[in-house]
From TrEMBL:
Name of this protein: 2-dehydropantoate 2-reductase
Organism for this UniProt entry: Photobacterium frigidiphilum
Protein's cellular compartments: Cytoplasm
Alphabetized UniProt keyword annotations: Cytoplasm, NADP, Oxidoreductase, Pantothenate biosynthesis
Gene3D superfamilies recorded: N-(1-d-carboxylethyl)-l-norvaline Dehydrogenase, domain 2 (1.10.1040.10), NAD(P)-binding Rossmann-like Domain (3.40.50.720)
Catalytic activity: (R)-pantoate + NADP(+) = 2-dehydropantoate + NADPH + H(+)
Amino acid sequence: MQITILGAGAIGCLWACHLAKQGHNIHFWTRTDKPSFPIVLNDCVQTKDSIQEEDGTHEKNYIQTPLAPERFDFTSNNIQSIAKSELIIVTVKAFQVEQALNDIFDHIAPHTPIIIMHNGMGTQQHVKTRLVDHPILYATTSQAAFKTDKEQINHTGLGPTWLGAFNQSAQGFDSLAELFHQALAPCGWHHDINEPLWQKLAINCAINPLTAIHQCQNGELATPKYHTVLTQVCHEVAAVMQAEGYAVTAKKLRQTVDTVIKATAANYSSMYQDIFQQRKTEIDYITGYLITRAKVHGIAVPMNTQLWQDVKLLEQNHDDK
Ligand code: KPL
């Protein structure tokens, strides 16, 4: 399949390499005018171990084993390749989606499906009004990767990816979930993509601001110091999710967050990296989106509001790169 990926960040490159391994022809659309670039993928396999704690309970331990580096060469920024693409995958940050789609909109063939995959929520309104006829799908992934430099990515954690239709024209595109599954398993089709998007938002509301503010690895949040704040964040998120129609409990969300903290213990969250590198963060589409929806439902979310303010303050203290 001829595929164009918008955005050559860690997640875009990770999918590009895995889709290329399946024989798909990958072209990138980036903010540079380079006609091609290489990517070296430092992939990993993840195994789960069960270890017995002192109190007799069994705890899961996640072990990532690195694989030998693999080099890929991708073409990029060729407007004709966009027109020929049978699939567009948008992996830019949430706040870049609008601009990225505007840049290529006139060149996308009318029936080409567009998959939008970013942390957070809140781009849907713009996408709905801008792309009226195209089949639009949203995706959310728990795969973790980071760029060590412009040409190297490390795949640091494995997790599920969900794909689902956003508009009527995208109904019946469930075979794309299988295509993604073949490339980087597991990937499933979800009949209501907002549900996994909310689940991921909940995880990001808990992990991202705290790791950005305290400049720590995800695993640090497992220490008792963060117990109360994580519990409070989960309570607030669960209340908003329930008001949105999702049957979650704060306890269940907290367990999920704990599992992700454990599975990604050695990782630096994307928001940690954005603050560390003095870049704009996705806070307005993560905690900010939660606050917006909380207001609609008349729900107080003081802890999330505090975290949002703290991250905004950190952002103001650096020049956007
Ligand atoms: O999605 C993530 C992120 O860093 O944005 C988590 C799940 C927190 C993994 O680091």
